[in-house]
Amino acid sequence: MSELLLEVDHLVVEYPLKGWRRRAFRALDDVSLDIRPGETVGLVGESGSGKTTLGRAVLGLAPVSGGAVRFGGCDLTRLPRRERRHLASRIQVVFQDPYSSLNPALTIEQILVEPLTAQRVPRAEATARVRRLLDQVQLPADAGARLPREFSGGQRQRIAIARALALRPGLVVCDEAVSALDLSTQARVLTLLQELQETTGVAYLFISHDLAVVRRLSHRVAVMHRGRIVEWGTAERVTTRPTDPYTRRLLLSVPVPDPLEQRRRREERARLVTPES
Amino acid sequence: MSEIGVGVVPDPVAASATRGVARRLLGNPLAIGSAVVLVLIVGSAVLAPWLAPHDPNLPSATDVLAAPSDRFLLGADSSGHDILSRLLFATRVTLAAAALALVVAAVLGISAGLMAGYAGGWTETVGTWIASMLMALPGIVALLAARAVVGPSVWATMIVFGVLLSPMFYRVIYTAVSGVRQELFVDAARVAGLSDARIITRHILTVVRAPAVILAAQVATVGIGVQSGLAFLGLGDPTVPSWGGMLNDAFTSMYLAPLQILWPSLAIGTTGIALTLLSNALRDAWEGTTGPSPRRDRRGTARPSPAGRPAGVVHDEAPRDREVPPAELLGVTGLRVGYVRPDGTSRTVVDGVSLQVRRGEVHGLVGESGSGKTQTAFAIMRLLPREAQVSGRIGFDGTDLAELPERELRRLRGHRIGYIPQEPMSNLDPSFTVGSQLVEPIRLHLGLGRAPARARALDLLDRVGLPDPRRAFGSYPHEISGGMAQRVLIAGAVSCHPDLLIADEPTTALDVTVQAEVLDLLRGLQADLGMGILLVTHNFGVVADICDQVSVMRSGRIVETGPVRAIFEDPRHPYTRSLFAAVPQAGVLRDPWVMPVVGRSGPGSLPDDARPTAPVGKEPADV
User: Fold this and answer.
1) Which of A151, B217, B397, B517 could disulfide-pair with B279, CB 3.0 to 4.6 Å?
2) Which are the contacts of B476, defined by CB distance < 8 A and separation ≥ 6?
3) Which residues 224-253 on chain A approach chain B with CB closer than 8 angstroms?
4) Which residues pair with A91 in a beta bridge?
5) Is residue B312 part of a domain?
6) B362: domain range?
7) Which residues pair with B328 in a beta bridge?
8) For residues B576 and A257, is the Cβ–Cβ distance under 8 A?
């Protein structure tokens, strides 16, 4: 068991619905998965499938009503707030929206130094580390003095990645981290994420609706549908030999940039869908 | 007065961001002027004991209503006090009274607003209830009642007034904070392990400080006004000089010495105007409205293009199944779209685009954000904002849309040219049912009666694959899903059997399974109705799925165009190639996972205590 970095164990997340005596909405239903150090686990699903909720539960931002999230053997859901805050530095996040995830009033350096000083890293060391981080995510050294609005979407996402790595976390939750980016920017950020993983040994929980992107970065992939994990295995197996019908339909729905191959897949999907309806 | 904005003192660590604000403030003559006036007023109040030539409270029976002279620069009032000295001391009292009201209002309102906005729950309910109650109280009546209880003391009255004003702060701060609370950077701060107090001071206060400071200047103005008003009505403390009290005194002797009413009025007016102007300048500086945002400048550089520039790489036509190529439906030649920047230079976003859509053909317009593809589509429909400078020929079935009068163009749009937008939800009016939004254009363009139009709309909803057309017809947009809304918009776009359909990223906001269904639907409709489609997208998979022809756009120009098979098999322009290279390839997988080597460290590496200690060597098992 000690091999596991993160273990999500029969997790249930429910949100109360407004209205008298209405049953709570079950966003996650008996979800289990695990992540090993330095591994990327891809989490695929469509909107409303619960993939973002799972990410937020791992980060401690969602109300857990059953099951456990264990990080390095320690159950995060049962920790008091203070200790949780301390441990939180080991799990970081990169959000989808590179515009609202950076405080517009702070400079890049302030944004990056903040998590370090919050964890009582001395000021001088924090500044030095921030400079190294900017270099690592391939931003110019003078970026620190500038405000977020001076950067493009791809650069902002690099800043968000730098902030996530500042505390040297064991796990980074990437919630649709490249979905808002243009194709070529997306490719560069994916390469950066992979390089950072190889040099630092950080693990990713990589949440995306885009199967092609998930396959490119992940070692293992979980497919979510209506709050449950319907398929879970190595990226190679899930994306080439799926067993679950939903996964198969999802895979065939992704259009491929090849007119002939795409026509073949379209016909295959039509055969898969027709018997159902 | 602005220096008494308690609770909104700029965060010292945000200094460099504030430096930009200071620079913008210094560039604004109104800001400098009003700041100088305020400094003079506050300075004279502080230095009043040294500046005043006379004792402000020393009456002199011989100098009653004395005219301005060497001895009394501004004259003497009805009790023989020197007006200048009294004005200086009154400034002290009035400003201090307004400051007191402001501090009370700011401390109460800001702290309650922060608490209610950040914590939510019962604090929100209680806070909003109290604020509403205070706002419902008629302020002056409440002040008069308070004065009857606590006596004529200026300070007690202003504390009560501060409490009455606190909802102004509460509401502004509460709204700002509850908006910021949802922002991702607050989540990111929580994940970084910051305490609530730190998040509030660092992230929330920095965002709400601008509205708070602006409000402070307004509240101070109101404070001065109300304090003066009360004193003018004779409800102030007669033993201390104040602007309102002086006004009251001058008013009673207006016919004998009309000039005397001028001095306190000037003091009240100047202070109020200076405060308002300064707060406006502060708002402009903080929100950066005085200069163009640098983000916009970088996109699409303006370069005058020589006429007849080659349209990038053009692929030959593939041999067609049909003998005669279908007639041209849309022929765009040399389309240019430019915008004038605030500094007078112009920015070209579409630079000499030429493209052709034939009947029954799907033409894909591909490019990254900022390439000008959506601007091109909007220019064809002439839906660009008025500031846009458009030139070029937009031939549609024999007519030039660019030359057409607006009236005739309106008849074409929606009838012969349909449009499918990217965001289905924001393109349906939330206050009308889906059905009524479909029926209206059908009646307008086809001249059908209510019942036939309704039948046609139901038919269309059935055709676009809605499971229960009748229910969808009577639903409001918020009652249907995004995929259904997009089907409704497609139904609307094809409702009048258009010849040309312009679809701007029609599937980008949809899930992949829904996207596949919507593409199937578009393909079916296109085959049934024989429409030409101009499809704007950034997704090469979508292009491969549905398009016959494709044009690749970059920085406002088409760099490569041709039949879809030719471009996918043999992309020639380096930009097209780089786009294809960026598409995640189906065959490429990560190398199998191996446990990271213990001991290697670098910035961002695992802390040693988080690293598992057990030896590893086991192959990753498939779960």
Assistant:
1) B217
2) B430, B431, B432, B433, B434
3) 232-237, 239, 249-250, 252-253
4) A171
5) no
6) 357-392+399-583+596-610
7) B358
8) no
